[in-house]
Amino acid sequence: MKQGILVYLNGTSSSGKTSISTELINQKEIPFYHLSIDDFFKNYNDFINNKFPDEPPKEIDHQVVSQIVDDSIFSVFHSTIKLLLEFGFNVIVDTIIDNDKRFNEFVDQFFDQPTLFIGVICSKEELIRREQTRGDRRIGLAASQFSKVYCFDEYDLEVNTEEMNPTECAEKILSLIKSNKEYTVFKKSRKKNNPS
Q: pTM higher than 0.70, yes or no?
């Protein structure tokens, strides 16, 4: 059975990842499943909020909570992606890579999968404008992520959501998939990170 294609959308909050994902899912030519790290954290937060008392007996630093929980949630997220790909499903991953550790973990997990690494690009000024217009995001979140998320200088494809609407971005992605061009960024990254 043929392995699924992994389409990895990397961009800040409000850059347009989810809108592009929706367009990719709505087209009928190539079927996709969509996985967002936000859904995994939301489900965990819902579980915590519904199962535990409001006031814990002891306060702990947010960094400690993050160290305990985040890696485990990312591990389940990655395992779910891997499982769907093994079943032969095409998967769109909508998340951010904001540090080398996350990037290396992802490369280690998926270097042998057909992975299309896509930069969803948008200026800081436009991201701020979108946050203010939407009203459902913390103002300044995208700006705080900007330099970390866009520190990668190589993608298989970049789409600029200021210059193209989500449908045009999705069409550009589909065009690359249909071209049968090899996706090389993760394979090269693997070689850079782990010389042999």
A: yes
